[in-house]
Every structure is written in structure tokens, then in C-alpha cells.
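From the shared-data thread, chain only:
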Amino acid sequence: MTALPEKVHGSRTAGYTLMEIVVAIIALAAVMYFLSGMLANTGKVYEFILKRQNAGQSASQAQDSFFQEVKLADSLLVANASTITVRRQTDTETFIRYSIDGTALKRAEAASAVALGSATDIVYISNLSSGEASFAYFDENNSVLNSLPLNEADRNSVRFILITLKIDEDGQVMNTRRRIFLENYRW
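Structure, as C-alpha cells:
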């Protein structure tokens, strides 16, 4: 008869001990915890970028429309810190008013200056930070025209308009400043 081999202290025959399994589970749990934290942060970063992108797109679209209409204006009728009214002559004469009212940039359009007074405002940007939006007017020397509302002589010397907007969409703040050089307006 053959004798069974004696077990030598510290040698293994087969399988894992309970302690090795517990250590492996703890190590795996630590790795999973770290990865779940990274995944959660990735989701938050994606949401932040998406909100910022949406805020930027809505502001950009409204500003582009505003930019084109004011840039191509034939005359500047009202110019103060919160309102710009311009006249454009294409096939017909059109009067357009942009105004900052609290937390919104609004637009109204009419066929005459008188009708513009009762025209309905359409909200272009509804999430402006209160008190953080304005229009500024500059002459040919790049000097700011401070006596608002501008009188006719100052309106005739406007070279460009600086629009400043601070847009807050779902906690994502976008600051924009844009110069509008007047093309058709004779100064």
C-alpha cells in the first residue's frame, strides 16, 4: 500500500482560502466604487456641456438676427441703454425695435414709427441676468456716447453699437459682447 503524501505546512493542494476570496471581493468593490464615481462625473460633465451649448446656441441665433437687422439699418431712431429702434428700407419701409426689459431681449416690428408704439414685443432671449444687459454707442473716434438717450446729432455720429448680454440658462452663465458696425447708416 502506498502512503498518502504528508501535507507540508504552508503548501496548497487546491482552491482558495476564505481570506483570499474576501480580499479579492474587497479589491473588486474598491475598483467598482472608483469606476462608478468616474462614470457619475462623466455624466455631470456631459450635462454641463450640453446646457452650456444650448445656452450658447439660443443666444447666438438671437444675436445673429439682431446683428443683421441693426447692421443693415438705414437710420437709428432711438438709442439708449435698453432700446434700439431702427428703420430699414428694403422693398418696404420697416421699423424695428429691440429692447431689454428686465430679463428678456424683445423685438417688435411695424410698418411705421407710430404703429411701432403699439406693436407686440416678441421675446428673443428670455433668460438674461437682470441688470447685466445693455447697449453702448461709439463714434468714429471709438469714444463712447454717454448722453443717453442719444439726440439726433449723436445718433448721426454712431459708428458702432456694443451689445452686452449675460445669459443664464439652467445655471449655465454665458457672457457675450458683440460690436455691430453700421453699414448702411450714414454718419
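The chain has one domain: 40-181.
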